[in-house]
Amino acid sequence: MTLPLSGTIDASDINVELGRSATATFSIKDAATGVYGAINTCSPYYPNATAPHAYSEWYGYDHNAPCLNSNFAYWDDTTTGTQNMLYSFKKDYWTDVSATRPSPLGQMTISFWLKHRITSSGQGYVMGLYQSSSLDRILVQWFSGVDPSVPGKYDALVIFGYTDRVSGYITSVVNLSDTNNSPITGISSTTPWSATNRGSVDANGYSLITIVLDYDEFSSDRYATWYWNETPLEVAWQNAANNVSHTYGDSVTAPSWTNKDLYIGGGFIGEISAKCQLDGFTLFLDSALTSGEVSTVYNGGAVADIADYQAISTNILFYNFESDTPDIGLETGGNYGFDLDEYNTPKRIQDPAA
């Protein structure tokens, strides 16, 4: 287990966290200085070894937390209908992450390292928060291809869907190779966005994609702000869909997340797969990141430590895919313990973002 972030912590709680009997003889000094076992400094929170020692130093301590920045990536199959993914089959978002819920009427941010995997045109899901029977949803997906009339490729599509998607919805689309954004992304407009046309990526082929929603800026170009690595893309507010980067919303209302599931690396079961590699996937539930905070997450091109994410907000879900199967879906941030189940045996490979 992980020790709580607030409330009462007893000697028995610390004993159990350290793998000891709850009733074993206990000294707060011996616990903090490693007499009962080395302190795991990979935990987001851990006690210091300096007197005076206090029980409050143990808030949030996870004796079994994986060390971050070994940066393993989650690999999803490239075959339609046989996708590997993570999803909250045994947990309901509404009851297990009940403190804060993302809404298009508020602020939220989705950020992740992505490595395009396929060498031709196609499409895939990165994440979803929804049920297949409901249009109250968040989707992040990508499309890759070349339109003869508008060369280039659409990247991820964010949809908050309601009713018939004709009214009461938001959609934000980025064409990574349109006139304004190709100099930022480095993606050619003459071939599909693919493993051979990844654009401006790090040495391992990853880009940090960050999508910020801020309802205080609704109906302006700043409502949905996209970043490629740490540089903002141009995504204009439009009153209708078109073939350039745009955001559009109509009669927006707050969604109901009752009985919804979180998916990473795929849509609902039976849909297409992600066909990409992900690392450092983060959902900021109530924060619209500033450009400076995006730069902090970008961290000069390396997946940042969890402490850097939590300095921005503690209302986050963070998955770094550090642990091996069956724990690929471990919620590494430790804020809610919203661990994800595996579908169709997803794999973890040692191909890190940085």
Would you give an account of this structure?
By secondary structure, the protein is mainly beta. It has two domains: 1-65, no CATH class; 73-349, Jelly Rolls (Sandwich), CATH 2.60.120. Helices cover 10% and strands 26% of the residues. The protein has six helices and 17 strands. The chain has helices spanning 11-17, 28-32, 93-96, 182-185, 291-298, 306-312, and strands spanning 73-75, 85-87, 107-116, 122-130, 137-144, 154-161, 169-175, 207-214, 224-228, 231-232, 236-237, 246-250, 261-264, 276-284, 316-319, 341-343, 347-349. The strands form two sheets. A nine-stranded mixed sheet has the order 11-12-7-6-5-4-13-2-16, with no helix packed on it. Strands 1, 3, 8, 9, 10, 14, 15 and 17 form an eight-stranded antiparallel sheet that branches. β9 (224-228) and β10 (231-232) form a beta hairpin. Residues 162-166 have low confidence and may be disordered.
Short recap of the structure:
With 354 residues, the chain is mostly beta strands.
Describe the protein's topology.
Layout: H1 11-17, H2 28-32, E1 73-75, E2 85-87, H3 93-96, E3 107-116, E4 122-130, E5 137-144, E6 154-161, E7 169-175, H4 182-185, E8 207-214, E9 224-228, E10 231-232, E11 236-237, E12 246-250, E13 261-264, E14 276-284, H5 291-298, H6 306-312, E15 316-319, E16 341-343, E17 347-349
Parallel strand pairs: 11-12
Antiparallel strand pairs: 1-14, 1-17, 2-13, 2-16, 3-8, 3-14, 4-5, 4-13, 5-6, 6-7, 7-12, 8-9, 9-10, 14-15
